[in-house]
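seq:
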Amino acid sequence: MDLEAIAKKCNLFEGDTEDVIREINCLDEIYERDNLVEIYNYFLSVCKDPEILMAVIRCCDRFRDKSSLSPLLDILLLKICDDDINKEKFINVRVMCAKAIANLKDTSAVTSLLYCLNNKDENYKVRFACADGLGRIGDKYAVAPLIDVVKDEEERSVYLRESAASALGMLGDIRAVDPLVSILETKQGILDKFTFLKERVIEALGKLRLEKNQRVFNALKSSLMDESPQIRINAIEALMESGYEEAYDAIKSCLADNDDEVKKNALIALYNMVGRKILDEVIREASYGDILKVEAVSILEEYEIDEDDEMARRIRKELDG
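struct:
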């Protein structure tokens, strides 16, 4: 194939951006898969227009062919940019590149992703995408650098630490336990700027499934008393999946929480753990408020009994009355 001729036919080098993208999308009607991959890879290596590059990356990502890795890495590392090109215009292109690279699941990309992640002068969006990409590729070589990011209290972007925590959860390496737990053990508070970081940390710990680690259980249990309702909800979900014997009682204490959504999530978690008996208890016992009783009946109606069941009608009538 004459790749340069195809590029010129698409007006890649001088055409209107929208027209070029339209021509690129029409290539599907002319060429087979392998040829398309070769064309897209060539376009990635010669195109300098950010919008067109994003369109080509989307096309490449459909096929997820390993041959696209090299041109994608060149864009991520800005090897395609001359000194006189405004590199700020390529931020979103590089973010999309990092995502496409992660989708290739090629561990040879880890070094380049780590390079961008560890560069504190790099745009935070690019670093964020690289952290996420490292988690999705799943190479354990990335664990230690991601831990360093999570632990770095001088890191300017809390969002980056959040992404690193999520990536560690995806990687599932026990080396991440201590640094993740240490974050949960810091001062609690709804106004704490690390609230969202703690949410990601709890999610990550939940994925690690360490039912024998008492320190993890204590940190998750303590998070049930955090001032942030969302942190409490995340802790409920993590405990539900954890396998800790004490998790049931810890979650059950949240049925008395002052936030309705926390109460509901606690009831759902308990139902997932032990089944219908917790619903019957909530409906039967006067100590539980209407919010929980309504939620219990809703779960019964959806999962346990038919809509025309006499018990469901009676309970619903009492609560609506």
